[in-house]
Design goal:
By secondary structure, this protein is of the alpha+beta class. The protein has a domain of 71 residues: Beta-lactamase Inhibitory Protein, Chain:B, domain 1, CATH 3.30.1450. The protein is built from four helices and four strands; from the N terminus they run αααββββα. A four-stranded antiparallel beta sheet has the order 1-2-3-4, sandwiched between helices. The longest helix has 18 residues. This is Lipoprotein.
Length: 125
């Protein structure tokens, strides 16, 4: 009987040690009165909308779906007009300010969507 108690105690100790490295990740529950609540939900909505965009979509239809961008850039090169809209899709700095590294670029050439994300932007810059 003493051996059984010792074995169970050892087993319980091993189980406790094996759980000590576990990490539990959970989605934060945001209070709707928290000023960051709207930003987090906007970011999620922007990611979902951007993921559903079709290549060659026209500028106005994309802008109507996503609203006013956080940043814009435009230029003309070799007779082609480029426009990049930046929409916030992630929070990097908890400072209440939006920076370009928190945004996803939406890239247009002559009014048609040619790509989204940093890769698309790098290809035209």
């Amino acid at each position: 009987m003493e051996f059984r108690k010792l074995a169970l105690t050892g087993l319980a100790g091993m189980m406790t040690l094996s759980l000590s490295g576990c990490i539990v990740v959970s989605e934060p529950s945001w209070d709707k009165d928290d000023p960051q609540y709207d930003q987090i939900h906007d970011e999620r909505g922007n990611r979902q909308t951007i993921a559903q965009l079709n290549l060659n979509a026209d500028f106005e239809s994309v802008r109507n779906k996503l609203g006013t961008p956080d940043f814009t850039e435009r230029w003309t090169e070799d007779g082609d007009q480029y426009q990049v809209l930046f929409y916030r899709t992630q929070r990097v700095h908890a400072d209440g300010m939006t920076t370009k590294d928190e945004c996803t670029p939406i890239v247009f050439k002559n009014g048609s969507l040619i790509g989204t994300g940093q890769l698309a932007l790098d290809k035209v810059m």
